[in-house]
């Protein structure tokens, strides 16, 4: 059998990630590969750290991209800060809170869960009750932007609670970085991780992380070795530290880092707050169009993620057939529900370069077509008029 080069079609990516990748970023990926210890590449690494500090709104020295996707960023935060026997309070209001619990238990620590309703933000009163009951907890962990439900939690208030009870914080910002307000230093976040493929509109495979001075002190004071050699920040610092001399740790994904650098340059050019406002404006347009189609949101307006729109599948409409139609007829991808929401919701992404008015027009038109074919009564014209208005 002779296998030819893989030539993928051009899709419009409006699922929970990856998002559309801007042509400038794709061009950056194709630039000549340098050695991962080349002085020019090391200089770009320093720029990348500064750009990530801008995106996170932080001055944390330990701010860098992990050479692996967001799940590895999550694991990096947990394995560096959690030790066997520790107690960690974990807020669970969707799939990714559950993954945090899995990290805690695999380390040999105890996860105390704050179970909140799916589709709702983390309940502050519940969290305080649990923290009051578990004064020996070391860490409060929560998902800022729950990708499985589209709910946005109040990270600033949760961090204030953690400080009140003398806990460090671990925050999942995989879907929030670059899409909604996020202020690491002002809010007192101790450890945070994200992903390159969401609102940064880069390719998947990198996980920006940042650790506060208090988190770094906790890492240095560990009684047990970090469970993961590859994700041990003590070792990674030798490669990502400041200055020209770097200790070999691993071969960095050179061209992928070019892409992340370019995406962050573009974020800086747009302006962080402008990016937040663009996502909010595109969400308002999409929301109006979906409501005109009779498609309703899972999350209340005050707690919705503008970049991840979780909506109920109308009665009588077949989930899989709609998604297959969009992909086959329009090269358009939206996401299925996860966990408790499997088969009940669609997850529609408006992240980064995907958050454009032409994508909203395509989605509303194609979705109306797909549902009409199944006997559902709706009007694409009404939806487009509402979106424009």
The top level CATH class name of the largest domain: Alpha Beta
The third-level CATH topology of the largest domain is Aspartate Aminotransferase, domain 2
Taken as a percent bin, the fraction of beta residues is 5-15%
**Number of self-contained structural domains:** 2
Total number of strands = 14
Order of helices and strands: EHHEHEHEHEEEHEHEEHHHHEHEEEHH
Strand order of the largest sheet: 2-10-9-8-5-3-4
Give the low-pLDDT segments: none
Radius of gyration over C-alpha positions, nearest whole angstrom: 21 Å
Average pLDDT, rounded to a whole number, is: 97
Judged by helices, strands and strand pairing, the structural class is: alpha/beta
What's the N-to-C terminus distance?
55 Å
Helix content: 40-55%
> Do you know the CATH architecture of the largest domain?
3-Layer(aba) Sandwich
InterPro entries: Aminotrans_V_dom (IPR000192), Aminotrans_V_PyrdxlP_BS (IPR020578), PyrdxlP-dep_Trfase (IPR015424), PyrdxlP-dep_Trfase_major (IPR015421), PyrdxlP-dep_Trfase_small (IPR015422), SP_NH2Trfase/AEP_transaminase (IPR024169)
Organism: Spongiibacter thalassae
Protein name: Alanine--glyoxylate aminotransferase family protein
Cofactor: pyridoxal 5'-phosphate
Explain this structure to me?
- It comes from Spongiibacter thalassae.
- InterPro entries: Aminotrans_V_dom (IPR000192), Aminotrans_V_PyrdxlP_BS (IPR020578), PyrdxlP-dep_Trfase (IPR015424), PyrdxlP-dep_Trfase_major (IPR015421), PyrdxlP-dep_Trfase_small (IPR015422), SP_NH2Trfase/AEP_transaminase (IPR024169).
- Its cofactor is pyridoxal 5'-phosphate.
- Belongs to the class-V pyridoxal-phosphate-dependent aminotransferase family.
- This protein is α/β, with parallel strands linked by helices and 389 residues long.
- The chain has two domains: 23-268, Type I PLP-dependent aspartate aminotransferase-like (Major domain) (Aspartate Aminotransferase, domain 2, 3-Layer(aba) Sandwich); 271-388, Alpha-Beta Complex (Aspartate Aminotransferase, domain 1), CATH 3.90.1150.10.
- It has 14 helices and 14 strands.
- The protein has helices at residues 23-29, 39-56, 70-81, 95-107, 124-133, 155-164, 184-187, 213-220, 233-240, 254-270, 272-292, 319-330, 357-372, 380-388; strands spanning 12-13, 62-66, 87-92, 110-115, 139-143, 145-146, 151-152, 168-172, 191-193, 207-211, 308-312, 332-333, 335-336, 345-349.
- The strands form four sheets. Strands 2-10-9-8-5-3-4 form a seven-stranded mixed beta sheet, sandwiched between helices. Strands 11-14-13 form a three-stranded antiparallel beta sheet, covered by helices on one side.
- Helix 1 packs antiparallel against helix 10 (254-270).
């Amino acid at each position: 059998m002779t296998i030819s080069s893989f030539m993928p079609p051009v899709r419009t990516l409006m699922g929970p990630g990856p998002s559309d990748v801007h042509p400038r970023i794709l061009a950056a990926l194709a630039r000549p590969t340098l050695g991962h210890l080349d002085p020019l590449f090391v200089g770009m690494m320093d720029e990348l750290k500064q750009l990530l500090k801008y995106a996170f709104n932080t001055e944390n020295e330990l701010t860098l991209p992990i050479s692996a996707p967001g799940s590895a960023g999550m694991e990096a935060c947990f394995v560096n800060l959690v030790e066997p026997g520790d107690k960690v309070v974990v807020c669970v209001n969707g799939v990714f809170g559950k993954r945090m619990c899995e990290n805690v238990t695999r380390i040999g620590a105890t996860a105390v869960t704050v179970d909140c309703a799916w589709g709702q933000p983390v309940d502050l009163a519940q969290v305080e009750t649990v923290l009051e009951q578990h004064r020996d907890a070391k860490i409060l962990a929560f998902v800022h932007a729950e990708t499985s439900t589209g709910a946005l939690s109040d990270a600033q208030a949760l961090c204030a609670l953690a400080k009140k009870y003398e806990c460090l914080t671990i925050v999942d910002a995989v879907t929030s970085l670059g899409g909604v307000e996020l202020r690491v230093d002002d809010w007192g976040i101790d450890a945070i991780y994200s992903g390159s493929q969401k609102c940064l509109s880069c390719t998947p495979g990198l996980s920006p992380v940042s650790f506060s001075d208090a988190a770094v002190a906790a890492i240095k004071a560990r009684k047990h070795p970090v469970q993961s050699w590859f994700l041990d920040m003590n070792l990674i610092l030798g490669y990502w530290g400041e200055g020209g001399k770097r200790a070999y740790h691993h071969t960095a994904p050179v061209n992928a880092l070019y892409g992340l650098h370019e995406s962050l340059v573009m974020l800086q050019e747009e302006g962080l707050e402008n990016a937040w406002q663009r996502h909010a404006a595109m969400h308002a347009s999409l929301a109006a169009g979906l409501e005109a189609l009779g498609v309703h949101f899972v999350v209340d307006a005050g707690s919705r993620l503008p970049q991840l729109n979780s909506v109920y599948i109308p009665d009588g409409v077949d989930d899989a057939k709609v998604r297959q139609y969009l992909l086959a007829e329009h090269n358009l991808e939206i996401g299925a529900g996860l966990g408790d929401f499997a088969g009940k919701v669609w997850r529609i992404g408006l992240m980064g370069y995907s958050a454009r008015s032409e994508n909203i027009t395509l989605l509303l038109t194609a979705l109306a077509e797909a549902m009409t074919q199944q006997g559902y009564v709706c009007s694409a014209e009404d939806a487009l008029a509402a979106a424009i208005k």
